[in-house]
Design a protein that fits this description.
- Two copies of one chain form a homodimer.
- The first copy, chain A, is α+β, with helices and mostly antiparallel strands.
- Chain A contains three helices and six strands.
- In chain A, helix 1 runs antiparallel to helix 2.
- The relative contact order of chain A is 0.19.
- Chain A is globular, with a radius of gyration of 16 Å.
- Chain A starts with 6 loop residues before the first helix and ends in a 16-residue tail after the last strand.
- Chains A and B meet through strand 2, helix 3, strand 3, strand 4 and strand 5 of A and strand 2, helix 3, strand 3, strand 4 and strand 5 of B.
């Protein structure tokens, strides 16, 4: 199978555009990142999976409306390309504050958190589009050497 | 791009084989499901992402050793194929009990839980191999209409 020229770099750029849109809380920019189709899906931390662009977009609108400030520092980013599909895993080191877009930012309310993320992209019409984002909370104090079951509780 | 003949059905079978290996707590069967390479990754609920087959395999060994019984009922399964890559989203409705493989099953300890899962497969040498599993706990009482931020806390 032919691969996309310079794929890793362009996937990494698409991944960065996703986080830039999230930090800017810009729904138009977020819509540019995604493939606006029925097959897209998003799983926000603690949420059930939402399917299809209308529900995915609705979740972004709701999250942006309830986020006064959010900043991502990505670590452990790994990009893998297989043909015209790519998946990225990374750790989202998040600093955020609640409140509305219109309200003032209350820096006293800043919270940190760690989310493990999987982002899937498909190359179409000359560019990579996100088709899936899955973020899950990493329990405080968890290290890779701990052993736990596949338990939701 | 040429697609894999009958792809959706064979991806669904590969996905089912993953859960069968998990229910059987069979490391050999689980190894058959996965691509045993450096690019594979697993994110168990609440865990950080583990990279590469040795660490992924180690996590299965630890989980199987601490799981006396586990049963999955999959709902809302969606299979998407793009060339020779496929991704599956599904809800894992889990019934499980702790304890060791060697110890007896204590049915009084059965716990339920809901995990949102993303599974990625790559077609190679005539079959689909899992390259990524990401499972995340769905908070009790969460519905798709709730609005929450991308917060790990």
């Amino acid at each position: 199978m032919s691969s996309v020229p310079g794929a890793e770099a362009t996937v990494e750029a698409a991944n960065a555009a996703y986080y830039a849109a999230f930090e800017a809380r810009d729904l138009d920019a977020m819509a540019e990142v995604w493939e606006r189709s029925d097959r897209v899906a998003v799983t926000h931390p603690g949420w059930p999976t939402l399917h299809g662009w209308p529900r995915v977009a609705g979740s972004w609108d709701a999250i942006f409306a309830n986020t006064a400030f959010i900043q991502f520092v990505l670590t452990d980013e790994a990009v893998h390309v297989s043909g015209t599909t790519a998946w990225v895993t990374c750790d989202e080191n998040i600093l955020q504050a609640g409140g509305s877009r219109e309200g003032g930012e209350d820096l006293a309310e800043l919270q940190g958190g760690l989310v493990a993320a999987t982002n899937v992209f498909v190359f179409d019409d000359g560019r990579w589009r996100m088709v899936l984002h899955h973020g899950s909370p990493v329990a405080p104090g968890e290290s890779e050497s701990d052993a736990h079951g596949e338990d939701a509780s």
